Amino acid sequence: MESLAVSVIQDPARQTVTTILYKEKLATVMHNVPIRREPRTYDSQSITGNRTVNGIDCIGRKVICRDMKAGSSTDCGTAWYSTTYDLLVSIEDAETFPDGTKRRSSWERYDVAISAEPETQLFEIPAGFQIKDE
Question: Full-prediction pTM beyond 0.90?
Answer without folding.
Answer: no
